Amino acid sequence: MIAPKVSTVRPSDLAREHGLSTQAVRNYEESGFLPPAERTPSGYRVYTPVHAAALRTFIALIPAFGHARAGQIMNLIHTDALDDVLLTIDRGHEQLLRDRETLNSVSRAVADLTDFEPSRHPRSIGELARRLDLSPATLRAWETAGILVPTREPTGHRTFTAADVRDAELAHLLRRGGYPLARIALVVSQIRTAGGTDTLVDALTDWRHRLTARGLAMLAASAQLNEYLTIRDA
Question: What is the largest CA-CA distance in the chain?
Fold first, then answer.
């Protein structure tokens, strides 16, 4: 039973604040995104301001880190794995920084019509896959789509030059931005030829806006997360 002095929040109010259904709130609790709710003798869930703060935190984390990572963060909080929470957040910031650096490098390449060289030595498909944290099968699919054009050794093995790594970095960046493979192939082709860059400039401008929005979302999520931890531990 909930102590009499503890205020409660109706499930409908908890859901309405975020435009959710009460079933979605229950699903979030069952997934560990909210702390477990106590039950009345008749079996109804009893939510408190702590649950309201947890839901606000989860919702704030989604645009900052994505749905899956937001859920992971909330589960780690509710198992008191604070160091792992911070590590997960650090990895999100690290990815944002890498996206910004790649975007800036490609933007300079377009502006100056110079080569973007993230690597100075050829790489195998396995090395490139590890660099991007992708599977070799994904890189082969990008090759089929015309995004990557690696050279082939007499043995049949693929070799990725500095330009190929640049193309792969750009493809990875745009893929995370939700661009389809066909459009990415067009953008990468334009970078290769250093001409007809209107589409590329538009894509990079759009992605820069997305990165800015994600960075601001991370700030907002961090503030909400700190508030939740304070309320939860009070």
Answer: 78
Instruction: Please give the Cα distance from 173 to 100 (Å, whole number).
Output: 9
Which residues does 185 contact at the CB level (< 8 Å), separation at least 6?
145, 146, 147
One DSSP character per residue, 104-147 reads HHHHHHHHHT----S-SS-B-HHHHHHHHT--HHHHHHHHHTTS
Dihedral pair phi/psi, residue 47, rounded to 5°: -100, 150
What does the block give as tokens for 114?
A: 């110079």
Q: Quote the tokens at residue 148.
A: 């990557």
174 touches 181 (CB < 8 A): no
Domain boundaries, the chain: 11-91+219-233, 93-213
Q: What is the pLDDT of residues 131-143, one digit of tens each?
A: 889 999 999 999 9
| Architecture field, domain 11-91+219-233 | Orthogonal Bundle (1.10)
Distance CA 156, CA 149 (A): 14
**What pTM does this model have?**
0.69
CATH code given to domain 93-213 = 1.10.1660.10
